[in-house]
Amino acid sequence: MLKIGLLNGPNLDRLGKREPQIYGSTTLPQIEEIVVAKAKSMELEMDTYQSNHEGSLIDKIHEWADAGFKGLILNPGGFTHTSIALRDAVVASGLITIEVHLSNIHAREDFRHKSLISGVSKAVIAGMGHWGYISATDYLCELHINP
C-alpha cells in the first residue's frame, strides 16, 4: 500500500480562527479528516502531522522516509520562504513532494512570492483552499499507479 505523509507547518493549527478571509473557515482537523478519507478511498495509507517547530517537521520527514513512505504533501506555512533546512530534508528524504498552500501566495505580499521548497517539489498547488490537498492526493495516487 502506498504511504503518504500530510505535513503542515507553523500556524496551520490555527485554521478556522486565523484570517478566515484568506485561509477559509475549515479547521486543520477537518481538512485532515477529508484528505485521509480521500486517501483511504483510493487505498492509500496517510499519516498526518502538524508542528509550529522547524526541527519537528524535519524529524517527521526523516521518520516517514525511513518508514518507506513514498509521497509527501507539504504545506510548510511561513517556513516556505525561510527554511533551507526544511528544503534540505525534502531533498534528502527522496519523497515525491507536492507543495500545497491554501492561499495563492503569488497574489499576496512580495515576501511570500519566493518559495525555497518549490524547486525541490514535483508540483506546487496554491490558492485552492483545502481542495489543494485533495488534488495533491489524487496526483500522488496517479503517479504511483502510472509512474
Task: Describe it.
The chain has 147 residues and is α/β, with parallel strands linked by helices. It is 38% helix and 18% strand. It contains five helices and five strands. It has a five-stranded parallel beta sheet with strand order 2-1-3-4-5, sandwiched between helices. Strand 3, helix 4 and strand 4 (96-101) form a beta-alpha-beta unit. Helix 2 (28-41) packs parallel to helix 5 and helix 3 (54-66) runs parallel beside helix 4 (84-93). It is globular, with a radius of gyration of 14 Å.
Low-confidence stretches: none
> How many beta-strand segments?
5
Query: How large, in whole angstroms, is the Cα Rg?
Result: 14 Å
Number of helices: 5
Overall average pLDDT: 92
Distance N to C terminus: 15 Å
Helix content: 25-40%
Q: Describe the biggest sheet?
A: 5 strands, parallel
Q: State the assembly state of the protein chains.
A: single chain
What is the topological layout?
Layout lengths: L2 E6 L11 H4 L4 H14 L3 E6 L3 H13 L4 E5 L8 H10 L2 E6 L21 E4 L4 H15 L2
In a few lines, what is going on in this structure?
By secondary structure, the protein is an alpha/beta fold. It contains five helices and five strands.
Tags for this model:
alpha/beta, five-stranded parallel sheet, 5 helices, 5 strands
